[in-house]
Amino acid sequence: MSRRDSSNDGAADETDDVPVNEVEAGSVDRTEAGSAADSLAARLRERIRRAGPLTFRDWMGAALYDERGGYYRRRGAERWGRAGDYRTAPERGRLFAATFARHFARLYEGLGGPPVFHLLEAGGGAGHFARGVLETLRRDEPQLFGALRYVFDESSADSRARAAALLSEFAGRVEFKGIEDFERPLGDAIVFSNELLDALPVHRVRLRGGRLREEYVGTDDSGAFIFLEGEPSTPLLAEHFRRTGVALAEGQAAEVNLEAGEWVARAARLVGRGYVVTVDYGDEAAGLFKDPRRFEGTLCAFRGHEFVADVLADPGLQDLTTTVNWTDFAAAGEAAGLKTVALERLDAFLLRAGALEQLERESAHASGDAEVAALRLDARELILPGGMASHFQVLTQKKG
Q: What is the pTM of this model?
């Protein structure tokens, strides 16, 4: 199952001492598997022992992105597909990437077909989407392919190595570089991401006694990770709710993704003229915070295509994800100079972008009946009601 096929949607730096009034808000019974002294869990426990409880944002950042043991950094780990923990739209087959390639070509034409055009994919994983886009453009859009400079942004060294091997035939056209590594705008460009925002580290807060409290991570006497409540680590958390015009109910928990706003601001600076196209699972602020099913927030853990009830168990060995706040993300883009063009469901977007026409084109180039059947199965997941794409949204923002 996809990490998103459910109605229950719910490398960190060393931190200084954090003043926390330790009120236990929940605990876990399991301890980190394995007893190696250098394990991520052991190092997190030592940080907590030495410096005090960590903000959940710092704990989640380490659990996902720690250089030695983070979920997205571990070498050789199988995270995608049947053998991994989740499936994403690009893995469903060629049609997803081919339809986006078709859409990118229309955006390129709308910009007048510039002689140099950058497409930056943020969080590109093992390169499957990039290969599908490049193959489609080479075959169907020679003008754009000739102008294209593909920038592949992926933080995991293991994933970059896999992507480099997968994209080797396009080596002269693909540059491996982070979005934060550019000193000046790219000019005419598209910045694209798929399921990047939901994996950014978030702060966890809760309204207690009419006051906003932040959830930290500490340990109990057995060494198990537990949630503790304390004063907010930054005034930006309260500002987030003032800006979105949402008030939490007494006892309600929520996530605040400050890094998503920082990311879209960097993307906006990078685009001289063009688009930021963001695919993810989310909701607007009113639905995100007023839905009673989300009273405990949207934080989820996945392992082996199953939900894990204990989000603090086994850091580095399970995926952690939260639902995107599209209202806040779009506002951050507007503040950075991006105009919101559309927020729409992914299945509707793909139909409008020509998925059915692209299906026929891909089928005409297929090597046999088995490949045609696979393409049609992909189409069912991407455009039919209740398919995988119906759980995602696409936000398109424009600059220039």
A: 0.87
